[in-house]
Design a protein that fits this description.
This protein has 478 residues and is mainly α. 75% of the residues lie in helices and 0% in strands. Bound molecules: tryptophan.
């Protein structure tokens, strides 16, 4: 049945390992280094981590399998793959809306993700110049920004925010790099980036974690991350944040995993790879926590700084640590690698779609999309300074204080991603042809198949519906 519908000459990963690396590259990103520690810190540490792991195992991993199998079955853009599966299941092609919503969400995420990655670039610039300065002074193992006071180190972030020119340049450089990689294609661009950057990322992360273990307060970090306060674990706010973070970190609900699944070969066991990708992503998040919190605790800073943890708290901590200058640079390079392998997955979705639709070359489509997401991202850049008091969605509950940046983040993370995930779970669990779906899972003879079926048909839709509801009406949980 599948063979009768010719796939449009799609590219493939060169190996299963390349697929897993690229998917891990998509999943591992600023979500792990910047968002996970910030969320864990703000939601009570251990309680959040426990709920997060449960969310990944019971909801994230099953959905990851659902997404990759839609892609691998279709071998087309996310929208066309979802439409094909709907057609072959005698269901309305309206089910492909899951991929349309997802594609829009991913494109919008890219606009502000690139702005945040631009901050990372800026800190590579400042910490890199700092390393050059310490080297020239013959003190390579000095703390970071040793020529500044701690207040001045902390001031770097607000200073950057008040400077739209610096922020736009950094955003531009990151957007252009992402566009370049995607324009080069699946094998020559995305795969090459993932197979070089991800191993380098792991080495750097391990190095920084060992450093944190030696010179930081490791036991305080372990206690913070692994001693759950069970009363907090059941707070709706914690549940809601943990599930949202699972979506964001596993690149779910947008179609990134459908897009990457489309380049996976027939003999890739998707059940197995979904487990591997989820485990790797969660492992990196926890290791990142074990790298960041010992450093934060060792200098007596608090873990609940939220989004400024990575750009304000951490540089301030590196300030008073041995070899802090070198480690700060290594940390931001690490974050850049992680961000780039994620941003290419975000851009790949709409690029594949328009290449297929308009029959234009990949280079042209990627450049047009790159230019447009850069421009829309400028709105987020300006929301930190020139338009700091714009409240574009003030009429929506929960968005009263949201500036443009928060609005992009909130609309995608709290509404569009869960919505697309909800449609995906219902589609795969209830609508799509059972045999066709089961044959793609790689779990055919395993007791995991009925378990997965139960999770995707019942638990995922109900849980995702709830995050959607509470995301839209936060007053329900207050
Ligand atoms: N998972 C990535 C991270 O943790 C971000 C990301 C990539 C993403 N693709 C996505 C988030 C799709 C949501 C949807 O940084």
């Amino acid at each position: 049945m599948v063979a009768s519908i010719p796939a449009p000459g799609q590219a493939h990963w060169s190996s299963k390992a390349a697929f897993v690396l690229a998917a891990v590259g998509s999943a591992v990103g600023l979500g792990n280094l910047w968002r996970f520690p910030a969320e864990a810190g703000a939601n009570g540490g251990g309680a959040f981590v426990l709920i997060y792991i449960i969310c990944v195992a019971l909801i994230g991993a099953p959905l990851l399998l659902a997404e990759t199998l839609i892609g691998r079955h279709g071998q087309r853009s996310t929208v066309a793959s979802a439409a094909l599966m709907a057609r072959q299941s005698n269901a309305s092609s309206a089910w492909a809306s899951l991929a349309v919503v997802g594609m829009i969400a991913n494109y919008l995420i890219l606009t502000f993700y690139s702005v945040v990655a631009g901050w990372v670039l800026y800190f590579i610039w400042t910490s890199g110049s700092d390393v050059l300065r310490t080297m020239a002074a013959g003190q390579p193992f000095a703390g970071a920004y040793a020529n500044l006071s701690v207040e001045q180190v902390r001031q770097q972030m607000p200073d950057l925010f008040s400077d739209p020119v610096k922020m736009s340049i950094a955003h531009f450089v990151f957007a252009a790099t992402t566009t370049f990689v995607v324009a080069r294609g699946v094998k020559g661009g995305i795969e090459v980036a993932a197979t070089w950057l991800m191993p380098a990322f792991f080495v750097l992360l391990l190095g920084i974690t060992i450093y944190a273990g030696i010179s930081g307060d490791f036991s305080a970090a372990v206690a913070f991350l692994f001693t759950p306060d069970f009363a907090r674990a059941l707070e709706p706010q914690v549940l809601n944040s943990a599930l949202g973070q699972a979506f964001f970190s596993l690149s779910l609900g947008g179609g990134a995993m459908i897009a990457y699944g489309a380049y996976a070969s027939r003999d890739t066991n998707l059940g197995q790879t979904s487990g591997m990708i989820s485990a790797a992503d969660t492992g990196v998040a926890i290791i990142a926590g074990l790298a960041i919190f010992p450093i934060v605790f060792s200098v007596g800073l608090t873990p609940d700084a939220g989004p400024t943890l990575m750009f304000q708290t951490l540089p301030a901590a590196f300030h008073s640590m041995p070899a802090g200058a070198l480690v700060a640079l290594a940390f931001f390079v690490l974050a850049l690698f992680a961000a780039l392998t994620s941003s290419v997955s975000l851009l790949e979705i709409s690029t594949a779609y328009f290449v297929e639709r308009l029959r234009l070359s990949r280079g042209v489509v990627a450049s047009l999309l790159g230019a447009s997401f850069f421009l829309i991202g400028m709105v987020s850049v300006l929301s930190f300074n020139v338009w700091a008091d714009h409240r574009p969605l003030a009429f929506l509950p929960g968005f009263e204080n949201a500036n443009w940046f928060d609005a992009f983040d909130g609309v995608t993370g709290r509404i569009l991603l869960p919505l697309s995930g909800l449609i995906t779970a219902v589609f795969i669990g209830w609508i799509a042809d059972r045999k066709l779906v089961d044959d793609e899972t790689g779990l055919q003879r395993s007791p995991l198949l009925p378990l997965w079926r139960f999770l995707i048909a019942w638990l995922c839709p109900i849980a995702v519906f709830l995050i959607l509801l509470f995301g839209l009406f936060p007053q329900l949980i207050r």
